[in-house]
Every structure is written in structure tokens, then in C-alpha cells.
Task: structure prediction
Amino acid sequence: MEVVIVPDAKAGGELIAEAMAQLLRRKPGALLGVATGSTPLPVYEALAAKVCSGAVDVTRARIAQLDEYVGLPADHPESYRSVLRREVLEPLGIGMDQFMGPDGTAEDVQGACEAYDKVLADAGGVDLQLLGIGTDGHIGFNEPCSSLASRTRIKTLTEQTRIDNARFFDGDIDQVPHHVITQGIGTILEARHLVLLATGEGKADAVAATVEGPVAAVCPASALQLHPHATVVVDEAAASKLKLADYFRYTYANKPEWQGI
Ligand code: F6R
Result:
């Protein structure tokens, strides 16, 4: 696992957007896995700026969703499909025909989960999966003690996650669904490159457990330690509880530039 400490969220966004751009220059039809929430926004802004300036062409890029609320109509402004359309697809000029995501309104939820794993596999797998992290260490919506081998399935959100996400629902926790469909940890680990971005002091404990703690289901993000190409990008505040912070700074500063992340 590589840990890159950046000065702030904007620098993290720029670094990851450049990794995505390099991937798309190499593989124009790459499948990018994207997360929602506040953390990835600087990545999407930086990538959209690159598209605008002509630094990268995304016309053949494909986008895959990480998770979705169960029961919110697809056109609800806070369904993750709507959020991704607004924050990723429209700014990048990518059409819905190049987008894939689970159906959060399916009557047969388990069937929809299995179908989505198959869609991802049939698409050739995710090339780069961008992840945020919950204050409790969740990735996607794999809450603590999710199986590290899990596939896409329905999960129940913890109360803390519903409190954290109430800000997207006028601050009203009662509007936050209890259930979600999320790519499983086993599904996420199949992506070729995992890039986790964490910013702010509120993520410092979760980052320390992810990077320096044991691989344990109680901290789902620690499963990144099992992946051959995982990059954790953190700002100074999110890195503040890392014991090996100086080592991570040293190794990144001395890395050959051509290697990228
Ligand atoms: C959302 C997702 C979640 C978020 C996490 C952090 O698609 O998968 O794991 O990444 O809850 O959310 P923010 O970035 O809003 O702190």
C-alpha cells in the first residue's frame, strides 16, 4: 500500500485526477469506479478541468457506481445515480449509456446485487476505483464487520453513517434510508487500482486503522492492505495519527516521477 500525504484536499484531487487522466490516455475506454460524498468532489473538479483544457479525452470512458440507497427513486436528487449524473457525468460530458450502477428500486434486491456484480465482470472489471472512507472505516457502504470477501449486496447503515449523511437530506436523519446496495469488499478488491482519498481530522483515526492497524473486518478499509495496487491519499489533517507519516513522506518524495501513483 502506498500512502501519499498531500497539503490539502485540492492537491489530493489534482493528484488523483492526473492518475485517472494517465489511465485514460493509456486506455481510452477505461472503467472508472466512482464514489459519492464530499471527499471526491475535488477529484471530479480537477478531472473536469482537464477535459475542458483538452488535457484528456473522456469520450470513451465508462463510469461505475459504488453504492446506492435502497428505495430512493432513481430521479430523487440524493439517489447516488442522480448525484453522480450531476457531479461526474454532466461535468465530464459522459452520457448515461456509458454509466453502470445497481438498481436501488428493484423488488428483487438480491437479484439486482448479483446482476450488478455480473455487469462489472462483463465490462471487464473496474480499472481504477476511487474510494472515500467513513469515520468508522467503511468503504462503499461496507460497515464495520462486513465480510472481507463480500460481494455486492444489501447492507444496513449504522446510525453514525445516517447522521453523517443527514446533511444531504436537509439535516433530517429520518429522510436518510436505512438500507443500501454496496459493492462488497471482495468486489471492490477486484478493481485493478484502488485509490482511497481521505481529508480532514475527522478521518484521522479511520486512516490510521486502515494503514497501520491489522487487516480486520472491524475496519473494512484495512482490506486495502490485501490489494497489490492500493494508494491512500490523505491531507495533513487525515494523516495526523499516522505513526509512519515521515516515512511515507520520504518514500513519496524519493519516488521516480514516471511511476505516478
Ligand atoms: C459513498 C461511499 C462512502 C463515502 C464515505 C465518506 O459512495 O462509498 O464510503 O465515501 O461515507 O463520505 P464523505 O466523503 O462524504 O465523508
Q: What stands out?
A: The chain has a mean pLDDT of 97. The pocket of fructose -6-phosphate is lined by residues 35-39, 66-67, 132-134, 138-141 (CB under 6 Å). The beta strands are 2-6, 31-34, 62-65, 67-69, 99-100, 128-131, 153-156, 179-182, 193-198, 230-235.
